[in-house]
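anyone seen this seq b4? input:
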Amino acid sequence: MVSTLAYLVYNLCGGDIPLSKTHPFVRDRTRAIRQDFTLQNYRRAETVECHEIIARFHILSLHKLAKDTPDHFVAQQEIEQLQKTLTTLMELYEDARLDGYDYDNEAEFRSYQIIAHIRDPDLQRQAQRWPSHIFSSVPVQMALKFFALIQANNRKQTNLGTKNTESCFNNFGTFFRLVKSKRVPYLMACLLETHFSEVRKYALKAMRGVYRRDSKQILLKFIQETLAYEGEASLIADCDNYGLSYAMTDPDPGQEPESYLVIHKGKGPWTGNASS
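predicted toks r here
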């Protein structure tokens, strides 16, 4: 099965045919490979290697195909397959440790487990029970940093409806600055991208709560840069989606007008879908 997976990844995904065309077939085959390992109860090094490759495939697919939105691609389904793959990997790592063996890539995939379940409030506690060399590793500590930044918003998280501390816009700026830094590995950044929509939503909500209604200081180009939007059009689309208004400044002679956010106090129509 290792050679089969290698062919799928390096010849189909890495060939001349676009990933959007080969993805459905490769996704189905990788799921079949995982099922075969489960049915055979085969849990040796080849199983770990294949699951690590499959997890990377799902993460890369989320990044490459989410913007193209081909008809067959549903991001949430891809995330579910990734989570299942990572869950199996975590079990394989634990079984290997009971046998006195550690896998070299465990810290990398533990960090993906944190980011893939970044809204699970129990995950941080679980991570503290991991072996010290895994918990203190660079990838896991980086993932926990993002975990802490995303928790610092005003989204309801408990069955009782209690809220976290009100959002601080600086937390969101720190989040995106860190994502763009060279300290963050490529695949980790790809997986973090699945949370961008939600993080941006609560950043915009935080801005509405802290800026004065008559302020013209919140230029869209500032928001675009801070929240890592690829262009002003996508930012404006979010503003429209969340019921936020924007207008043009009255520039001095010789200067170009600029777009700025118009603040309206109150609850606001935060009905937009911020899911990944």
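Residues 156-167, 269-276 have pLDDT under 50 and may be disordered. Residues 75-98 form the longest helix (24 residues). kinda curious what u guys think
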